[in-house]
Write a structure and sequence with these properties.
The chain has 212 residues and is mainly beta. It contains three helices and twelve strands, in the order E-H-E-E-E-E-H-E-E-E-E-H-E-E-E. Strand 6 and strand 7 form a beta hairpin.
Length: 212
Amino acid sequence: MAELDHIVFACPDVAEGTRIIHELTGAMAVVGGAHEGRGTHNTLLTFDDRTYFEIIGVDSNQPNPERPRGFGIDDLDGPKLVAYAVHTVGDESLDDLASVVRSAGFNPGIQLAVSRRKPDGELLEWELTTGGDTAHGLDGALPFAIDWLGGLSPASSLPAMGSLVKLLVCNPDPRVAEVISGLGLSDAIDFAVGPAQLTATIETPNGIVELS
């Protein structure tokens, strides 16, 4: 089924979040780009050529968006691991991944076409699911889904952060485990019933780091 696409580390200030990750891991994230109309921008690192790490926050060069910024960024007091995404594999569609979320009794949200402009001017385009119970909707427990539309994932051209050892998803709702299993993510993601939290264990140039 699906594969882990990226992990989202949200913060009010991307520069501060980038500095924190550099101090913890020894890896310096590079500029990804702005999400026009959404009021955010990001910096990026990679685990491998399929899975990456996103630091996202407020873009002061954009006017305030009409809607709240994604991932609860407007309400954050400080940096936090807030969400994770999966991408389609082979002939899978976003509808296929959404059906797994729906079959466990959750709302997979809607599908949107989005884009961002890379620093070199290239326009990166993709489709994703958003809203409902995914991403920030259930405290990060359920992934949102991405289709790169046949293009390469950003993970393939980013500086290395290290190796993702495990992503732990904790949530009071045991049905989350059905989604993780149904998407074929059990090897990459552990689930535990408990207070809502995401924790990534990463082997970095500075040793093992846990982020939550």
